[in-house]
Amino acid sequence: MSNPWNGADALAVVVEGGPTDTDGCLVDDATVGAGPRAAADLDRGIALLREVASGTRPPTLRLYRPSPTVAFGQRDARLPGFAAAGRAAEERGFTPLVRRAGGRAAAYHDGCLVVDHLEPAADGVAGTRARFAAFGGFFAAVLARVGVDAHVGEVPGEYCPGEFSVHGRHDGVPAVKLVGTAQRVISGAWLFSSVVVVEDATPLRAVLSDVYAALGLDWLPSTAGGAEDLAPGLAVHDVEHALLAAYAAVVRLDPA
């Protein structure tokens, strides 16, 4: 099979953080129920990346619903307001963490779906930009299948701005950021991580407003929203099923 990111033709699938009725996927029983802690979520991705790089794990697709987290970028951590921003996140019930990938602060909770795609590569850096473009288009197509007018491109004033953000449109105008993406590359492998905001965006707007104010960064709170704002009734499991179906059309999905 061929796929837009020119990667492996098969992926081992792991779904963490809650029960699923998706055929062919493994639910990590250690995380069913309360779910993994925020720091463990990020650490798990890096651990899987190292396993893929070492050859002890095959190319892997990992899906999970995260606990409330504000993931700061490396640049955020160097700003004078970083400590205050971390306190603001905690006051809203979100765990502040600094991620190892780039970008600015992003917030997510269990109304979101995090997708970690990991593959071995002799030179992971070489394909960085191409992967951003390919996965942006891929996720926009997935959201379009569930009724969202989704496209690729930065929304003016969005949080954690990026050229390949996936956004939703109101009346044909880019309005709401729906998917943020980041990459981590090490010797021998790459990790492409995507956060799809689906449900209950109000707490995300609130915490991001406090965090960005503390950091001294300008943004438009109206750009933070969820897919359900554009397709009422849409739920995380709808997006998960559509995503796995889209993957299954271009790669073989194997139980982990």
What features would you highlight for this structure?
256 residues; alpha/beta; nine-stranded mixed β-sheet; 27% strand
Count of alpha/pi helices: 6
- Spans with pLDDT under 50 lasting ≥5 residues? 18-36
- Helicity level: 25-40%
Annotation, overall tally of beta strands: 12
Task: Explain what this protein looks like in three dimensions.
It is a single chain. The protein has 256 residues and is of the alpha/beta class. The chain is 30% helix and 27% strand. The protein contains 6 helices and 12 strands. Strands 1, 2, 3, 7, 8, 9, 10, 11 and 12 form a 9-stranded mixed sheet that branches. A 3-stranded mixed sheet has the order 5-4-6, covered by helices on one side. α2 packs antiparallel against α4 and α3 crosses α6. The radius of gyration is 17 Å and the shape is globular. The protein starts with 9 loop residues before the first strand and ends with a strand. About 7% of the residues have low confidence.
